[in-house]
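Box 3.1 A note on notation
Throughout this textbook, protein chains are presented in two layers. The first layer is the amino acid sequence; the second is a token string describing backbone geometry. Keep the layers aligned when reading.
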Amino acid sequence: MSIHLNPVKPDPVQYFAEIFPLRIENLNLNTTCFRLSPEIDREIGNRLSWRFSQQFPGVIVICHHKFFWVLNKPNLEIPSKN
């Protein structure tokens, strides 16, 4: 299984979180993105993202369109992709 990095940052988009809108634009977020090869389906991606989040305290991992998005607290390092 190999990891492919997504070097392109997404355009600013408006997201809705909980009950209020959240606009991500010029924020300095502690994030990274990767995908697995071979590609996996949504169910397995959701399971893996939950396990990644459990493995690394303080890190949130979601799977969206076959990419894993990792969000960490600003003062902590993103876990190594290895």
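The first strand starts at residue 2 and ends at 5. The CA atoms of residues 60 and 71 lie 5 Å apart.
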